[in-house]
Amino acid sequence: xxxxxxxxxxxxxxxxxxxxxxxxxxxxxxxxxxxxxxxxxxxxxxxxxxxxxxxxxxxxxxxxxxxxxxxxxxxxxxxxxxx
Length: 83
Description:
The protein is mainly α. It is built from four helices and no strands.
């Protein structure tokens, strides 16, 4: 099985779906990655890796929600038509 652009697209779509369905109270709080956790970063300091990952997760959940629904529908339709 060769890696094609379609397989790469599906893998990235599945990863985006996984990030969007993370439930903050059930999963992220248990590992200490919640928006309610205290932010010890001061003004002008560089954000930590954990802070950058949290910002990325929240940005993806905010920005990609509606386009991701549409891309999922198109992908499902293509899979149904082409097999």
